[in-house]
Amino acid sequence: MRKISFAPLMLLALAAITLVQVSPTQAQNIGVKLKQDAPTTVVVPDDQVVAVVGGSEILFRDVRLAHQYLPEQYRGLAIGKVYDPLLLQLVERRLVLLAAKADNLGNDPKVLAQVEQARDRILEQVYLTRKINAIATPKAMKEAYYAEKDGTGGPEEVRASHILVETQEEADAIVAALDKGGDFVALAKEKSKGPSGAKGGDLGYFTKDKMVPEFANAAFALKVGDVSAPVKTGFGWHVIKVVDRRKIKGPTFAERAPEIRQAMSQAIAEQVLADLSKATKVEMFKLDGTPGPTPPIGTQAK
Predict the structure, then answer these.
(1) Are residues 179 and 93 part of one domain?
(2) For the purposes of burial, counting CB atoms within 10 Å of the CB of 178, is it exposed (0-12), middle (13-18) or buried (19 or more)?
(3) Which one of 204, 223, 247 terminates a domain?
(4) pLDDT digits over 187-226, tens only?
(5) For labelling, which of 16, 103, 208, 235 has a CA lying 20 to 30 Å from the CA of 298?
(6) CATH number reported for the structural domain that contains residue 180 in this entry
(7) Which residues pair with 236 in a beta bridge?
(8) Residue 57: CB atoms within 10 Å
(9) What is the pLDDT of residues 224-253, one digit of tens each?
(10) What's the Cα-to-Cα distance from 1 to each of 4, 18, 88, rounded to whole Å?
């Protein structure tokens, strides 16, 4: 079996691990997963020590979070399958961390500046995330989904048949024959020049965007059972009969949830920024130091 190496991306992935908090329920689920996938039945608690480096303990929680932030191609592997290389990476990082602390890098002005910048970014992210989570709840997302579904639903389809001929005179004659009780299927098989003629003109179900505009507009204007007047397109002259209409089943909530969440998050963040900018004096300056205009912020920008 080929050796798995996470070295190129592990440091970047692990850099964010300590910023994430996991609930006891999530931790319990991870334990169950390890129990199912490992060769032996075992549930590992988060606080179990898995390595000691120079007196500094590495816990199973560190391994679990490292697994959570693996590159996508490895994330689907059971944690038991990648435990050894993950733990080795954590040991290597702890060695570097201890050496950095021994060199007193924690008091280096450049390091402190980077830490402060990282802290600010974390505070910004956590503030917005909490605001979003308070509003974009599963209940609110489902309400948005059902409102969207009730308002639009899936696209409409019609099932139609047609008889395609070359001239308007031929099309008028077919309409006249149908008005006298002629059979549409029989006439299509006898008269239609299109490939659907052999099937009685049946085109199956289609949405409006699948046909040329002249044909689609005429078909979607008909009720079930109605026959159109002759319709001219680039293919010739059509006599159209609508056999059925239906709504396509729209996407499920699970399918739409990520997009709904994204849209709600964007709207909430914009509203938060707008509210903050109204409550806080904001001044912006040009490169030469003179006062500049302050553009609308958040929802005010729309």
Answers:
(1) no
(2) middle
(3) 247
(4) 999 999 989 999 999 999 999 999 999 999 999 999 999 9
(5) 16
(6) 3.10.50.40
(7) 233
(8) 13
(9) 999 999 999 999 999 999 999 998 887 889
(10) 9, 32, 18
Cα–Cα–Cα angle for 88, 93, 95, rounded to 5 degrees: 95
Domain membership of residue 296 (yes or no) is: no
Cα 37 to Cα 2: distance, rounded to the nearest angstrom: 20
| Amino acid residing at 38 | A
Dist. CA 83–CA 63, nearest whole Å: 7
Distance in angstroms (rounded) separating the CA atoms of residues 288 and 241: 72
User: Looking at the whole model, is its pTM more than 0.70?
Assistant: no
Q: What are the helix and strand counts (H, E) for the chain?
A: 11, 8
- Residue entry with tokens 């979003």: 132
User: Token pair of 291, please?
Assistant: 């006062």
- In-domain check, residue 230: yes
Residues of the domain holding 194: 156-247
Please give the tally of structural domains in the chain. 2
End of a domain among 231, 247, 263? 247
Residue 238 corresponds to which tokens in the numbers above?
């059509």
Q: How far is CA 43 from CA 70, 75, 194, in A?
A: 21, 20, 67
149: in domain: no
Residue 210 carries which DSSP code? Answer: G
Between strands 56-59 and 156-165, the pairing is unpaired
Query: H/E/C letters for each residue in 2-43?
Result: CCCCCHHHHHHHHHCHHHCCCCHHHHHHHHHHHHHHCCCCCC
In a domain, 269, yes or no: no
